Amino acid sequence: MADQTRVPASRRVTINTVAKAAGVSIATVSRVMSGSSSVTPDLAARVHKVAEELSYRPSTAARGLVLGSLRNMGVILPDLANAYFFDVVKQMHHGATADGYRMLVADYSGDAADELATALDLLGQVDGLVLLSSRIPTSGLKELARQATPVLLVNRVELGVDLPMVAVDNFTPMMELCGHLAKLGHRRIVYVKGSDLAWQNRERWRAIEMAKVLGIEATAVPSDGTIEGGYDVVEEALTHEPTALVCFNDLTALGVISKLRERGLRVPEDISVTGFDDIDMARHLAPRLTTVVSPKIDLGDQAWSLMRAALNNETTTSPPLISADVVIRESTGPVPS
Amino acid sequence: MADQTRVPASRRVTINTVAKAAGVSIATVSRVMSGSSSVTPDLAARVHKVAEELSYRPSTAARGLVLGSLRNMGVILPDLANAYFFDVVKQMHHGATADGYRMLVADYSGDAADELATALDLLGQVDGLVLLSSRIPTSGLKELARQATPVLLVNRVELGVDLPMVAVDNFTPMMELCGHLAKLGHRRIVYVKGSDLAWQNRERWRAIEMAKVLGIEATAVPSDGTIEGGYDVVEEALTHEPTALVCFNDLTALGVISKLRERGLRVPEDISVTGFDDIDMARHLAPRLTTVVSPKIDLGDQAWSLMRAALNNETTTSPPLISADVVIRESTGPVPS
DNA sequence: CGCTACGCTGTAAGCGTTTCCACCCTGTAC
DNA sequence: GTACAGGGTGGAAACGCTTACAGCGTAGCG
Question: Span of the secretion signal (chains A, B) (predicted)?
Answer without folding.
Answer: none
